[in-house]
Amino acid sequence: MYKKLIFGMIAFALVTVLFAACSIKEAATSSGINAKMGASNFIDTKVTLKKGQSVTLVDEVASLHTITNGQWVGSQAKAAVEPGAPQVHFSISNAGATQNVGPFTTAGTFHLYCTIHPGMNLDIIVQ
């Protein structure tokens, strides 16, 4: 009987530690900086981060976006990766979907854009 009790207590302790470790990791990787995307635009067109932080892009609607380094200049897409910027290239299309970008370890201004939607630019200012 005592063996079952001890085994149960050990199992409970291990599950508790596992859940605690997962929540600590999640909190440590999330910087709390979001940039929302609409159907064909960044709702948040500019975000400011501290060095070492990341930004989470949040798709507010079910619209396909392909995000990469660079920016729209007028009607021309200009792909470019600024020195110190993380390389970005992904697609996102579900309402509520998120994608973490970063961390940004160099101070400066960095640009992301959607290759599908002309004028859809995001400026990331890292201090």
Beta-strand content? 35-45%
Regions with little confidence, pLDDT below 50 for 5+ residues:
5-30
**Main beta sheet, described?**
6 strands, mixed
From the spread of the alpha carbons, the general shape counts as globular
Figure out the total of helices: 1
Give a count of the beta strands, DSSP E runs of length 2 or more.
9
Helix-strand pattern, N to C?
Answer: HEEEEEEEEE
Question: What does this protein look like?
Answer:
With 127 residues, this protein is an alpha+beta fold. 22% of the residues lie in helices and 37% in strands. The model is unreliable at 5-30 (pLDDT under 50).
Short description:
By secondary structure, the chain is an alpha+beta fold.
